[in-house]
Amino acid sequence: MTNSVSSPLPESVPLRSVSPPTSILSDDFDRLLSEDEAGSESSTIDLHFSQSPTLPSTDRGRHAWTFLAACWLAEAMLWGFPLAFGIFQSYYSEHFLFKNNKNIPTIGTLATGTSYLGMPLINAIVLRWPRHQRALCFFGWLLCIGGLVAASFATKVWHLLLSQGLLYGIGWVTCYTPFLFMLNSWFIEKRGLAYGILFCASGVSGLVIPLAVGFLLDRFEFRVALRCYAVVTIVVSGPGFFLIKPRTSSSSSSNRANDPRKPTDSLARVLRSPHFAVFAAAIFVQGLAFFLPNIFLPSYASSLSLPLASANSLLALLSLSQVAGQLTLGYVSDMSNPYYPTSLAALVSGLGAVFLWGPAKGMWRLVPFSLLWGFSSASYSVLYMSVCTFLTADADVAMTVYGVFSFERGVANVLEGPISAWLIGEGSKVVIEDFALGRYKGVVWFTGVCMFLSSLGAAGLLLRKRSK
Predict the structure, then answer these.
(1) What is the 3-state secondary structure (H, E, C) of 236-285?
(2) Which residues have CB under 8 Å from 213's CB, separation 6+?
(3) Which of 92, 191, 390, 414 fits as disulfide partner to 187, beta carbons 3.0 to 4.6 Å?
(4) What is the pLDDT of residues 98-109, one digit of tens each?
C-alpha cells in the first residue's frame, strides 16, 4: 500500500516529447479569422514558401533579373516589330506588287489583334500543360521568325496577310503568354515594376526599329529587309532563351492536387465580382481610343503642313514617354489600390486630348500632347496585372483574368478601324481655324470622351471591400 502511494515520479519530462494540440489550435484560429484575414494569412504563407531556401529568391538576385533581361530582349525585338508596321505600310503602298491594295493596313492590325485576341486560348494551353512553358516560348519564337522569312517571299497581299500578319501574331502570343506565367513566379512584391520594365522594351525598340527598317527598305528591297530583321532577331533574342525558365520545376497548377478549391470556382467568383465589372468596362472603353493618336498624329501634323520629320518625331516622343510611363505606373501599382492609377491615367489622357490635341495648330501643343499621351495612356496596359492581383490572390486565375482583359483590348483594336473611318468621314476638309482642324474633330472628341468615361471607374472605390 505504501509503495503504491509513494511511487517515484520521473525527474523531468523531455520538452521535445510535449507537443501542442495543433489540430485544436488550428480549428480555433479558423473560427477566429475573418474571411479577409484568412485570405491575408494565406498570402503570407504563400510568400513565406515562395522564399524557400531551396529555390532562387523572388524579386531579387541574379536569377530573377537575368530572366527579366532575357524576356526584355525578346519583347523588344518581337513585339516592337508589328508596332512599327507603319514604315512597311508606306513602303507596300508604293511597291509595284502591292500598290493601291486596300488590305495593306490590315497586315499590321492582324498581327497585333491576333496577339491580343489569342491570349485566352494560350492561357488555357499553358494551364493545361504547365511543364511545357519553355517549349511554347521557343515554338512561338520560331513561328515569328518563320513569319518574317515567309513574308520575304510574298508576291501578293494575301501572302503578307497570312505570314507577316496572322502567322506572326500567333507566334508572338504563343511566345509571350508563358513569359507572364513565369514572371509571376519570379516577382511578387515588385511585380508591377517588373511588368513596367518588360513592357517598356517595345517603347525603346520603337525608337530604333523604324529607323533601321526604313534604312533597309530605302537601300534594298523588302525581301532583304525582312530576312535581315529575322537574322538580327535570332542573334539578339535567341541566346536569352537559355535564361528564360520558370522558377520552379513544377507549376502552380500541378500543386493543386492537395488544394480542395477548384480554379473554375475561383474564376467564377472573380467574374461575378462588381469590381471585375467596373475594371472590365473601364479597360474596354479606354481601349477604344488607345491607338487613335498613334494612327492620326502623323496625318494631323501633315494637315498643318509640318515637315515629315516633325510628324515622325511625334511618334518617337510618344514612344520615349511611354517608357517612362510604364516604369512609373508599374512602380506605383505595387504600392497603391489599382483604382487610383487606372482612373488617373485615363483622366489625364482625356484632358490632354481635349486641351492639347484639339486646339493644336503647331508643334508647341502637339509635342506636349505626345509626351503626355505616351506617359499616361500608352502605358495603361502595364496596370492590368495589378488589377488582376487585386481581384484574386490565385496566380493562375489572375493570368486567366489578364487574358480576358487582353481579349477586350483586341476587340477594341478591331473596332477602332471602322469607328475612326466613320468619325473622319469622306470628303472632310481641313479648316485650320476650327477645333481639331475640323477634319479630326470627331476623333479628338471621341478620344477625350472615352478616356473620361474610363476614369469614372474610380467609382469602384465606393463598393464594399472585396473578400479574397
Answers:
(1) HHHHHHHCCCCCCCCCCHHHHHHCCCCHHHHHHHHHHCHHHHHHHHHHHH
(2) 84, 87, 88, 225, 229
(3) 191
(4) 877 777 877 887
Q: 220-229 as b/e, with b when 16 or more CB fall inside 10 Å?
A: eebeebbbbb
pTM: 0.76
pLDDT for the residue 22: 41
C-beta of residue 112 within 8 angstroms of C-beta of residue 82:
yes
Structural domain boundaries in the chain: 56-250, 263-468
Residue 262 confidence (pLDDT): 56
Question: How many other C-beta atoms are found inside a 10 Å radius of the C-beta of residue 5?
Answer: 6
With 0-12 / 13-18 / 19 or more C-beta atoms within 10 angstroms meaning exposed / middle / buried, residue 128 is exposed
pLDDT digits (tens, 9 = 90+) for 410-463: 888 878 878 887 888 666 788 888 999 988 999 999 999 999 999 999 988 888
Let me know the angle formed at the C-alpha of 121 by 119 and 122, rounded to the nearest 5 degrees. Answer: 65
Residue pLDDT, tens place only, 32-64? 333 344 344 334 334 443 444 577 777 777 888
**pLDDT at residue 143 tops 60:** yes
CB 449 within 8 A of CB 349: no
The answer for residues whose C-beta is within 8 angstroms of residue 287's C-beta and 6 or more apart is: 408, 409, 411, 412, 413
| Cα 111 → chain centroid | 15
- Distance between alpha carbon 424 and the CA centroid of its chain, in Å? 29
Q: Which CATH architecture has domain 56-250?
A: Up-down Bundle (1.20)
Domain 263-468 sits in CATH at: 1.20.1250.20
Cα separation, 460 vs 462, whole angstroms: 5
Q: Given CA atoms 289, 198, 370, 110 in this order, what sign does their dihedral have?
A: negative
Q: What is the secondary structure of 105-166 as a DSSP string?
A: HHHHHHHHHHHHHTHHHHHHHHHHSGGGHHHHHHHHHHHHHHHHHHHTT--SHHHHIIIIII
Query: b/e map of 99-125 (b: 16 or more CB within 10 Å)?
Result: eebeebbbbbbbbbbbbbbbbbebbee
User: 17 pLDDT band (50/70/90 cuts)?
Assistant: very low
Q: How many CB atoms lie within 10 A of CB 148?
A: 25
Backbone conformation region of residue 108, classed left if phi is above 0, alpha if psi is from -120 to 50, else beta: alpha
Grid cell 498570402 in the structure block, residue = 43
